[in-house]
Each structure stands twice: as structure tokens, then as C-alpha cells.
Amino acid sequence: MKIKQKETIYDGFYTFRKLTIEDKGDTYEREQFDSGDAAAAIVYDTDKDEYIFVKQYRYSAEMELLETVAGVVEEGDPAKTIRKEIEEESGYAVDHLEHVWDFFSSPGACTEKVHLFYAEVSKRKSKGGGLDEEHEAIKVISLSMEDLLTKKFLDAKTIIAVQWLASRHQVFLKSPEAKL
Predict the structure, then answer these.
(1) Beta strands per DSSP E along 12-112
(2) Most exposed: 17, 42, 70, 94, by fewest CB within 10 Å?
(3) H or E element: which one contains 162?
(4) Where's the Nudix hydrolase domain (predicted)?
(5) CA–CA separation, 142 vs 121, rounded Å?
(6) What is the Cα–Cα distance from 129 to 117, expressed in whole angstroms?
(7) Of 51, 50, 49, 84, which Cα lies nearest the Cα of 70?
(8) pTM for the full model?
């Protein structure tokens, strides 16, 4: 399989491309969605023994979602990006940062690679809530380990992060049918 041609068909907040692909003598077209890479973190407040999540309206899901802190990677530096996003969204400064895993969110159509981190925090520098100029209206939600194990998350990066955390602590998630 070989990409023979890439044509940008829309370049706005996101970029869409039309690809011409050749495979086993056949040529066909596919669309590709480029939103940039993302950095995400499951955030643990070491003083309060709670995990910090954010809740915000996601227009593609047409609802509010409870998620890990995340943002689009800037300057090719996922670690620097997630430190900044944690402070902007939750108000906390990062004490410790550990890389967990990199994965593609939906490789059939999207170029996004998520760089997942585990972050420890203890000092809140601001109220968080995101940036007005980015039209963010973020609510900071703190959950105990017991509470987060019973939440029904709908966001893939958050599910992966919580599964990783449960595995790290050798605990099991509760029923996936738990209430949001």
C-alpha cells in the first residue's frame, strides 16, 4: 500500500486531505483528518489523594464529557504541552510527570497520536477552567480512586488512562454500566 498523492481540501481549525492510494494495482481515494497530535494526562493530587479530571462540552459528541486533561501538542513537545495544559485546565502545577504510552486515537481516518502521561500535583496556582480566548468552559472534577473506578467514561484517552491506572494499582474497574 502506498500513498501516491496528498491534496489539502480544507485548511481551517482542522485540516482535511484527500489521499490517492495505490494497493495491489488498484487506485482509490480516502479522506484524512489532521487535528495534530495530543498530549493527555491522568492527574493525581498527592495532598488530597484524589484524581483530577475536567468536564467540558465537546461539540462533536454534542455533550459534556468527563476527561483527562489534554491539549494539542505545541512545538513538537508533548511533555511541555501537558504541563501547560494541566495548569491552564486544572490550575495545578506539575510536581512529577511520567510518560505512559503513545497511541493513535482513530487511525482509520485521523492522524492524531495521543501522548499519554501520569502527572502528580500538590499545589494549585489558579482556579483553572481553561482559556477564554480558546472558548474553554472547563469544570475541574476531583475523584477518589473508588469513585473513578465506577465512572462510565466515554472518551477513549480517558478510558485508556483509567485502565492503565487500575492496572498499576492492581484493582478492577466496576461495572461499565455505572452512571455518568
Answers:
(1) 15-23, 26-34, 38-45, 50-58, 63-67, 69-72, 92-104
(2) 17
(3) helix 156-168
(4) 34-167
(5) 12
(6) 20
(7) 84
(8) 0.89
| Buried b or exposed e, range 40-64, using 16+ CB within 10 angstroms | bbbbbbeeeebbbbbeeeeeeeeee
Say which residue the cell 494541566 belongs to. Answer: 86
Closest CA to 92 of 55, 66, 62, 119: 119
3-state secondary structure of 44: strand
121 phi-psi bin (left φ>0, alpha ψ -120 to 50, beta other): beta
